[in-house]
Amino acid sequence: GGKDRRSGLILTIPLCLEQTSMDELSVTLDYLLSIPSEKCKARGFTVIVDGRKSQWNVVKTVVLMLQNVVPAEVSLVCVVKPDEFWDKKVTHFCFWKEKDRLGFEVILVSANKLTRYIEPCQLTEDFGGTLTYDHMDWLNKRLVFEKFTKESTSLLDELALINNGSDKGTQEKERSIDLNFLPSVDPETVLQAGHELLSELQQRRFNGSDGGVSWSPMDDELLAQPQVMKLLDSLREQYTRYQEVCRQRSKRTQLEEIQQKVMQVVNWLEGPGSEQLRTQWGIGDSIRASQALQQKHEEIESQHSEWFAVYVELNQQIAALLNAGDEEDLVELKALQQQLSDVCYRQASQLEFRQNLLQAALEFHSVAQDLSQQLDGLLGMLCVDVAPADGASIQQTLKLLEEKLKSVDLGLQGLREKGQSLLDQISNQASWAYGKDVTIENKENVDHIQGVMEDMQLRKQRCEDMVDVRRLKMLQMVQLFKCEEDAAQAVEWLSELLDALLKTHIRLGDDAQETKVLLEKHRKFVDVAQSTYDYGRQLLQATVVLCQSLRCTSRSSGDTLPRLNRVWKQFTITSEERVHRLESAVAFHSSAEKILQECPEQPEAINETEQFEEIEAVGKSLLDRLTVPVVYPDGSEQYFGSPSDMASAAEHIREKMKLVSLKKEHMRQPEATTPES
């Protein structure tokens, strides 16, 4: 690191007691002489050969070797001799005499006399100088510099190859990047090492060492600084380009990966995914079949969901690239995004359409099953023979029948609506069939739907026909029960008339006029009873006709007719008895009133004996009838009114008979007095 008085560099060669290899020394000298610049070399070298610990012949060999290694650059060779001089051989070889042949001056000097030729500040402490020098430190720094130089130079070549390859055509660029894409060393590591080396060199340039002693840097270190800076600048430039190449490559790789994934999604959706949908065209023929198809469709949707998730991720990546992408990539990215979106949306629409179709089919079959069950229930109700207890139960059954028929009508209407909606959806199925002819498959579905609706319509029509027959039969049964009830009511009414006749129609009248009024009322009363009897007979005749129409035997008409006839017979007998009594009363009252109203001055007008006898006979006969009960054909007997009522009526007749007797006696008295006179 020191310099001589001519500003030439000083080269120190320390020799030791061990055998020195001239080859290694030659190589070392070549390396050391390669460090200084050409400008420094032009100023020449001063070589110090430290022979204090070596032999003369080694020193001589080294000096002679300098002639071959650096003859032109060496201006002075100082051989530092030991304190005890070498043997006499030195005298036989005078270096100064060999100056012309060697090309440089060689002097023998002791260490303490070396300052005559070189300034002490340029000599190390080994030679009595003050120059601070740490050979191991210099060696370590040199090794670091050499390593950095080698690595940075190699790295620059690699980066240049990569960067220059990226500027070529697409095929060459791809081939070059594929072969040399990754440098052999990490550029960041090399740059970090270069910065540390440069910082160390600059620190030694401006600072002292070993406690702050002033130190002038060596020429090789001063020379290393611009080399390191130049290499660092070149590395930064190439590394920046390399980073851009990597960024472009990463972007291209990312774009290629996205394109590859997009094609995977598109190929699967347009391939296996679409094929799955093409094979699933049926709608099932029952609820269970439709549910099985729905389950299969859910499995298909599950497989599609995985690819749709990839689509969402890819769409986000493409959107991010579009926001930060270059102009040259925008068209390609948008095309990929559009292609991916079109395929995914189309496939999602197909899945949704298929799901809606299966749901509509399930609803159609559900309505069809409910309607079928309703028809079965209605048919079962119609197949059971009607055996109601009364007309009210028949009315209730008829109402239930009408409600079931109305429910069937509503169910069939709902089935038609569901079926038409399903047919409309099937007609739109060809729009996403990808060219596949689905006419045959659709025809099977259409035929099935129409067949179900037609079958339900036929079953409903058959049930309606049976309902009409059953309705007519039940209405006839209602009429039958009504006739039977009315006939029974007629019997009751007739019984009530008979009872009223016996219990309330007991008066015979106080005179002939009143008795005639009672007789007229009785005839009207009989007319009412006759109408009631005739009404009952007509009703019973109607029940016979209805029973024949219904092909059944009446449960009550067989008993009602004898009852009606029996009551009517009793009423007829009672009525005749009542008429006889009233007619007898009329005759009695008329005769009695006639006698009682006769004037005494006209006694000749009255057939006294016959008339009084007739009145007495009618009166007694009437009294006798009042005590006799009405006897019916079955042997039963009934009295008019209560005994007190009959006694009252009899008492009234007896009083009138007394009046007639008094009249008779009164009329006989004049006859008795006339002969005496």
TrEMBL record:
Keywords: Repeat. It comes from the Eukaryota. Gene3D superfamilies: 1.20.58.60. Residues 1-135 form the CRAL-TRIO domain. InterPro entries: CRAL-TRIO_dom (IPR001251), Spectrin_SESTD1 (IPR056804). Pfam families: CRAL_TRIO_2, Spectrin_SESTD1. PROSITE patterns: CRAL_TRIO. Belongs to the SOLO family. This is SEC14 domain and spectrin repeat-containing protein 1. It comes from Colius striatus (Speckled mousebird).
